[in-house]
Amino acid sequence: MKDKKTAAILALFLGGLGIHRFYLGQTVKGIFSILFCWTFIPSAIGLFDFFAFTFMSKEFFNVKYNKDLSLHCSVCKTQLLENVVSFWGLGENNGACKSCFKKIRQHSKETGEYKFENDEVQKIINGEINNRPLPKTKKDNFFIPEVDTLEEVELPEEFESINLNSLAQITYTDSKGQKSERRITMYSVNPTIDNDYMIRAYCHERKAPRTFKMSRIVELTDMETGEIFDNPTKYFLDRFEDSPIGLITKCFQKLESEILILTFVARADGYLRKKERQIIMDFINKNSSTNLDSNLLENEIRRTYCESQDFRKCLKNLSSKTTEKRNEILTLSTDIVNTDKNPDPLELGALELIKKELLL
After folding, report:
1. Run of H or E including 276
2. Taking the complete model, does pTM exceed 0.85, yes or no?
3. DSSP structure class, residue 108
4. Which residues contact 279 (CB under 8 A, 6 or more apart)?
5. CA–CA separation, 20 and 16 (whole Å)
6. Which of 57, 59, 166, 306 could lock 260 by a disulfide, CB 3.0 to 4.6 Å apart?
7. Helix/strand/coil for 270
8. Phi, psi of 338, rounded to the nearest 5 degrees
9. Could you give the CA distance from residue 178 to residue 72 in angstroms, rounded to a whole number?
10. Tens-digit pLDDT profile for residues 14-26
11. CB burial class (10 A; 0-12, 13-18, 19+) of residue 293?
12. Are 251 and 284 in contact (CB under 8 A)?
C-alpha cells in the first residue's frame, strides 16, 4: 500500500533521480529520470510532483496509485474512478468527484467559502422533487383558460385501457369552446361509451391531473422532435391494434415499471440522449417476443416521460421481482449514468435511490 506523504517526500528530496517513480511502480519513468538527471529536468518535475502529491486528495492518490475502487464521492456518493475523482482535497476525508468539485468551486467564487450546499441528491431520495425538467422546445409560450372545464366522460363497465406515459404538446378545445395549448404527460387512454376516448394526463401548465377527450384534441405535437400528428385519433387507435405501434405499446405495458425507471434516470438531468435511448431500446428488444420497428421504438422512448412519484411507484413494483431482474435494472441504470463522463448529481441521486429501494 503506497503512502501519499512518502511519495511527496521522495519527490522533493530524490525527485531528480526519479526515486518516487520507482516507489509508485512507474519503473520506466524512473529509469528516464536517472538517464537525464544531469539536465535537472527530472529535479524540476520532482518538485512539481511534490506539490501535486501535497495538494492531491487522499482518494485520488488511492484510486490512481493503489487502484482502490471502493471509494465514493463524499457529496453525491458516486464511485471514485481516476477519470472522475477531483485532484484537490475537499469534502469528507478530502474527496469529491469532478462534477461536485465544479459546483464547490463555483460556490466558493460566490461566497468566498469552500462549502458544498447543493442538496439536490438528497431531495430526490427524500421525494421532495416532484417533476424533472421538461425537454426544451422551439415554442416557449403556452396558454390555458382561467378555469378548466372538467370533462365528463362515462366509461363502459368493462373497458380496455392502454398506458402511455408519453410526453406531448396539445392544442385543445373544451366543451365550452375554450381553446388551450399545453404540455401534458399522457398516462392512459380509455374508450368511452359514446365511441370516443378519454385521455388521463398530467398538465404541466396547470400542474395538476386532467382528462381530455380525444375528439377535442385539435393538434398533437411531439415535444422532442416537433413532429405534428395530423390525425391524433389514429395515433391512439393504432395502439389498440396489432399494428407496429400497437405491438410496441403492448411491450411497454408489459415492461412499464422497468422502462419508466430507466427513463427517469436518463431524463434526470433534463436530457434523453441517443446513447441513453439505445440502452433502453436494447433492453426492450431483449424482452420482446416480436420484432419491433426500431424507428418507431426510438420515437416512443423519446416521448416517454416519468414523474418523480411514478418513479417511486415503479421502484416499489420492481422491489417484489427477482434479484436477477432488480440487478439488471440497476446495471442498466448505472450504464445510462456512465454515458456521461461527468454524471449530473440528479442522475446520481436517482441511482442511489434505486439501490436503496431495491435493497441492492
Report:
1. helix 274-286
2. no
3. H
4. 262, 266, 332, 335, 336, 339
5. 9
6. 306
7. coil
8. -80, -5
9. 54
10. 988 999 899 998 8
11. middle
12. yes
Amino acid letter for position 244:
P
Match 441513453 to its residue by C-alpha cell.
276
Cell numbers for 126:
427524500
In DSSP notation, 192-220 reads -TTS-EEEEEEETTTTEEEEEEGGGEEEE
Residue 208: strand pairing partners: 203
**DSSP letters of 129-156?**
---PPPPP-S----B--SS--PPP----
Q: Name the amino acid, one letter, at 143.
A: F
| pLDDT single digits (tens) 75-128 | 667 777 766 655 544 444 446 677 776 666 665 565 555 444 455 556 665 666
Looking at this protein, which amino acid is placed at residue 127? Answer: G
Q: What are phi and psi of 78, to 5 degrees?
A: -70, 150
- Using alpha carbons, select from 4, 6, 5, 31 the residue that is nearest to residue 18: 31
Amino acid (1-letter code) at residue 221: T
User: CB count, 10 Å around CB of 2?
Assistant: 14
